[in-house]
Amino acid sequence: MFTGIVESVGYVREIKGVERSVSLKIAVPDIFDDLKTGDSVAVDGVCLTAKVVNADDFVADVSPETLSRTTLGKLRTGDKVNMERALRLSDRLGGHIVSGHIDGTARLQAKAKEGESVKLSFALGRKLLRYLIDKGSIAIDGISLTVNEVVDDGFSVNIIPHTAQNTTILDKKAGDEVNIEVDVIGKYVERLLGKGKESSIDKAFLSEHGFL
After folding, report:
1. Has residue 198 got a pLDDT over 60?
2. pLDDT at residue 199, rounded to an integer
3. How many CB atoms lie within 10 A of CB 69?
4. What distances in angstroms separate CA 124 from CA 26, 178, 185, one per listed residue?
């Protein structure tokens, strides 16, 4: 489990292919000096398991399923990646609850300067767009962000200077893909409502308890 608050930016040191899977060697900053074999690390929002941990990098395997749903298969040696270690129970939850299980990808359409911030507009398919709401939470490449606005074919977010300086988000160009993890609460609500008679939770129940 993660928070979407990126701790540091690492880079891809080596990529090895194993049939349809790949093995990534990621260079890590000094603050990751407590990383151990078996630990979870979010790399551009994707939860990976450290298979081998060295003094200044770690190795993780990426499965065909993960390659099919994320941008990790498009990484090249030297590419920068957002990184976050797994959440401790004693940590502050500064972002929102992020699992590191990517739902799909979005495509950057436009960047626009707005005061000290930068507005980013993304195209996203309806399959995932239905989980987004104005001022709701979304994880983009592992970064916890607030949705500004949802439109028919996508959404927008604003990037403040701190996020710009400490992540890779503004390195993206129009046409680039990013990893998307929608807020898990929306998916659970949809699943429960979809069960009909098998669940006591319906729209009337949610309205009565202040959720609608």
Report:
1. no
2. 56
3. 18
4. 28, 10, 19
**What's the CA gap between 112 and 96, in Å, rounded?**
25
Which has more confidence, 179 or 33?
A: 179
pLDDT: which is higher, 89 or 180:
180
DSSP 53-67: E-SSEEEEEE-HHHH
SS3 102: coil
Best CA proximity match to 123, nearest among 144, 108, 141, 138: 108
What is the band of 197 on the pLDDT scale with cuts at 50, 70, 90?
A: very low
In Å, how far are 87, 111, 197 from 55, measured between CA atoms?
22, 38, 55
Contact assessment for residue 193 and residue 199, using Cβ atoms and an 8 Å cutoff? yes
Distance of alpha carbon 68 from alpha carbon 202, whole angstroms: 34
CA distance 110 to 22: 31
- Alpha carbon distance 137, 145 (integer Å): 6
Count of H-run helices and E-run strands, the chain: 5, 13
CA end-to-end span of the chain, whole Å? 27
- What is the strand order of the sheet 80-85 is part of? 46-49, 40-43, 80-85, 8-18, 21-27, 57-62, 52-53
Q: What is the pLDDT of residue 168?
A: 97
Among 68, 53, 186, which residue's Cα sits nearest to residue 128?
A: 186
pTM of the prediction? 0.87
